[in-house]
């Protein structure tokens, strides 16, 4: 409104004096009111009079103007949104690129935040879960855990007073054969059994939905035999029959009474990261006793519920005071020294921290990678918006000259970013649903079984919209605020981008290049670890090698004779199968699970040797393809009552008898033996015991038949017996293996049938998953960086078309113009590479959260880490340089093809 209108307003309203802002607002609303009358055909003077009458006196006008300011602001915002929408519709390629970029980046962010919320932040499904703690006997500085030995757990139960209740349970589930009905030899199925003491469920605060908990009497070694069913097993096998309580079933051939059924919410297993061990189908009493074979080792876990008023810190102070009395009572524990010469101590941690300790670092690290991708996407769009804003400098200058405030101009620019952020967030929420499903389905890490809530995490959307709008709109807004309006109006259409604007675009591009280099380095490093692990020899030849596993538990297989008779029957039947070349049995399959035992030190300054024991049948090494280096294999003559024969691995022989032959040496292993100390009769090639990431294990192999009944019963209770079947070609031996086992004992089902290659692949699943996931993130960041570099150079070429035409007209060759543009793109890339390389030097330490430290340095030491880091950086830099050349080439080629006459005609 002009000064004349303001003057007339003051006259009509009695020459009242208002501040300038109120005058403008008043003029705006009075003009709107008068316009309504004009549209109805009322003359100008009468329209103004009616508008004045509708407003009344000056004070009333002031109040009405104040009330109407919100209406005007809403009108302005709506108008800006409409204009921004038209601008986006005129640039469909840019709009589609921005929406796809934001949808993928925001979708990945919401997916990872959903996991963080569900896994790390959601409350545990137990009453007063903040009072639950895990109590461990562990080395200082170890991740939160609740490991205990039988002795230390009993000691704590006897002396600790900070806990209202304590519970001990086995550190893993074990397979068992469950049969329903009077004939326990038919219809047995495999179930996962968890051994827990009678205080386990009361400590958690979980009550059975049917029946009762275990009694103290049932938890004694000589007590009655009872089990509790999981809700899922109750539904599958018993159809949800509430009369199942007190029903007799057969577990491993022994009779058990069903005491109760746990609720459906009872998910206390490692398949759920917020739990402590594998999900169980059946719980049975732990019957913790000093006579248990695993009592001295860390084969148990312990949880507790704090007394009212007792904090975790206070409980820690109490158990720390028990360390000294513990070692006085159990002096042998002083031999449990770590490399750093530190003894284990009692540690109390919140149960939530214990439950997520194995996945916390992984999820947080992946979330950081996703946020980095989102930042790259925002920087990319910010750079493109800055280029678009530079083209609109004269438009913005004209708006300012016609009276638009800087705030109004900035609001107009932010409107476009807001629309993109809002639509991108909506698409991101939709994309996060399949992303989460794919992530959970493909993850070998038990991230989640119950599922994460995208709906709850979608509340994050307004924050994401605000952040994306701010980041994407800051660059063009800052450019508008710092430019001189008069200079822009005088410059005309050819003003182009200023030096400061160019610097901003370069800073944005360098930033996203640096982030992309870090992600590429991380992906290269993880991929290098995975490839090195995959190339690591396992010690067996997996080609044409299948494995059938069974659980030989219960009173029926508590003796060596019963076990070997079953094995002999199965092997005899399998040998007659067509296509079978070799077949053998082992207790504790390599890369699966096996027994670790201790060997006394050979010298005064040495500690106990912790080695791996495997029981095998004759011909095992030929069946699995392990090379016999010296001596002989386990033979048929190695029977009960004869001299104990043992075959050792090459690493074991070098460790105990360096520089000389191990054949004929004796091994004084701890525990019961038959026939005196075992004598080494053979040396075989090294093999990995639990993981390809570990160094070759110190392995000894003994014959099944030479084990005492006590040892055989314990091994059958802990580990599955595996039958290794070497065939002449890829033949499905499932039917033959099932028939052989059923013929030997109809009550023993196959617990697992697989190939050895599948077992090896499973051991590599974790590094493969993380390397693949980070590679996807890095690839996305690389594509965004290429798009940003291509867009920046294309914009600069278009803005400098006249300059390039002049250069060509003055004699510059097209090859020189091509090199000129290419150098600009590569120079920006090199700056980003330098910054990103510096940041990437911290990756080895950060990525240890994704992979075990032993996995990361498998058999190579510090030099391998340095080599992997250098290789990863070289690969990342190489990929970025190649991408930069490709992104720069096409704008450079377009620049070199400019015709001078056409360029000089441009205004």
UniProtKB/TrEMBL annotation:
GO molecular function, one term: transmembrane transporter activity
Subcellular localization: Cell membrane
Record keywords, A-Z: Cell membrane, Membrane, Transmembrane, Transmembrane helix
MacB-like periplasmic core domain residues: 95-321, 556-735
Transmembrane segments: 93-116, 363-387, 408-430, 450-475, 507-531, 769-793, 826-847, 867-890
One GO cellular component term: plasma membrane
Major subcellular location class: membrane
Family per similarity comment: Belongs to the ABC-4 integral membrane protein family.
Protein's recorded name: Putative permease
Organism listed in the record: Edaphobacter modestus
